[in-house]
Amino acid sequence: MTIFSDRLNSRLSGLQKKYSGNLIKIFLRMHTWFLREFCRALLVELLRIVRSNVEKLRNGGRKLRILVLVGGGVGDVLMQGLAIKELFKRINCDHSIDVTSSYSDPFHYFPFIFYGWKFLNIKHKDRILIGMYDVVIKMDRVTSILYCDGKFVSKKSPWLHNFCTENEKFFAEHGQFFGVPSYSHAVVNQWSILHGRKRIQQADQCGLLGINDSSHTLLDINPGIFQFVEKVNLGGVPYVTIQRGINYREQATDSTKIWPISHYEKFVKMFHETFPLIKIVQLGYSNKFCKAIDGVDLNLVGETSLYDVASVLKCSLLHIDGDGGMVHMKRFLNGKSVVVFGPTSADLFGYSGNVNLMVNVCKNGCEWVTDTWYKKCLRGFDGAPCMESVTPEMVMEATKRVINSLKDYSYAVVDSNIGDGEIADYVIANDVGRNARIIDVFNKNGMAVARKLAENFLNLTVFRDNFKFDAFSDDKNAGLKLEYGCIYNISVDDNSCDIVIWQSGCDAVPSVEYAIGELFRVLKPGGSLIVSGVELSSPTPTLQRFGIFSKSIKKFGTTVLTKTEKS
Question: What is the pLDDT of residues 136-145, one digit of tens each?
Fold first, then answer.
C-alpha cells in the first residue's frame, strides 16, 4: 500500500502541475492511470500465484528473492546502502537483493553510490514486479517490512525471518515513525536522541544490523574518477573543500541550513592568512542554487558530476560545510569535515570523527517540525540565528585544530627480496605482537595468507570487493573479520594499521598512485606496507609522488614500504 500511495501521489502531483485548473483532464488522465495500475496489479498477482504453485512442486531449492526500496538525498541513500551491506552479511543462504527507488527522483544516484557492489542489482522502479519477491523492505529514516513470505523465509534464513518479525513488531508499536517526512521524521529524530542513537543508525532501529558511529562504511570508487583531480590540477596539491548549498530538490538559494555567505567569505580570508600554501576549492550543485564565495582558489560549482565530487572530496585535507550530503559523502570516503549545525541536531547528525559546531540558540533542532522548516525560521526570525551564531572565528579555530594535527611523512622501501609465498612468514617474523592491527586487501591468492595470519594475530581484517555468502560464512566462523571495500577507499582510520598487505591480481592497476596513497593513509608510522604483483619500478612515476626513487624494486615482485613522520 505504501508503494501504491507513493506512485499515486507522484502521478497526481505531476498532473496538477501539467494541467493546472483543468479538473476534467486531470480526472480523465487519473482514470486511465487507475485502469492501467489495476491491470498491472492483476498481472503481478497472477504471476505470484503461478510462481507459488511452481515452487510447491519443487523442494524449496531456489534462492531467496529480496527487494529493498531506498530514497532521499545522497546522504540518505549512502546510509541506507550501509544498512543493505550489513543485511547481506547476515543472510546465510543463497539469495539475491534488488534495489530500487522509493521515489521518482533519486534513481540517478544509484549507479554512483552502488558502483561495484556485486551483492546487489539495481532495478528501475517501473520494471519491478513486487509479487516476484519473498521479502520487500523499505528503508527511509527507519526500516519497514512491506511484505514477507514468513514460511519460506523462515526455512531459508531464520536470521532474516527474525529481522522481519522484529521490524514488524517495531512498526506495530511505533506507527507514527512511518509516513511522510513532516509527520514522522521529527518524531524519529527525538526518539533517536533520547536513545543516544545517531542518524546513521536510524535504519537499524532494532539494532540487528550492528550499525554504529564507527561502522565500516562502503563507497566503491571507479579509479577513472581521479582523472578529474589531475585535470583541474589538484593532484598532489594540498587543499580543503568548501560548500554552501542544500539538496538540489529543495530548489532554494538560501535555507535555514546554510551558513551566511558573509561568514563564508570572512572565513576564506582568515584561512588564506593562516594557511597561504593550502588552496580552497568550492563545490556545489549549480550556480543557480549555490552562490559563489569570494576568495576561493578554485570554483567548481556546477562543473562536477557526483563522480568528480567524490574524487575532489577524497583527496582534500578537510571539508567545511553545513549539515548535508557532502558531509556524509566525505565520511563515507573516510575523511573529516568541520560542520556548522543549526536546525538539525549535531547530537544526531554529527559524526564523532568530525568537528561539529553548534550554538544552542534553540534547545532542540527543528528538522521536519513543519514542511517549511528549511525555508524560514520557525520562531519568526529573519535568517537563521542558530546558523548565524556560529562565527567565522569558531570555524577557523576548528579548522586550524584539524589541519595542525595533520603530520608530514616521508616514505621508503624497506625490502624487495621477499618471495610471493613468503608474505605470511615475513609478517609473523616481524615480531609486531599478537594484537597488531593487520589488514589484508584484495589478495589475488584468496584467503590463504589471511588464514595463516589469523592463527598468529588477533586483530586481522580482510577487505574484498566480493564475498559469496557461503564462503563469507565459513571464513567468518573460522574467526576471520571480513569486510567489503575498495582499494581506493578503505574504511579504516588514518594511521591505524601496523601491517597492510596488498597482493594484486592485476599488473596494470589504474590510478595506482591513488591506491598506494590510500594504503599509506591507513598505515601507522613505522608500519609495513607489503605490495605484491604491482608494477612499482621505474620508469613509472607511481612512487615518485611519495618521494621514492629506489632502483632496487623488482618490477612485479614483493616490496615492503614504510612511512616515517618528519621531524
Answer: 999 988 999 9
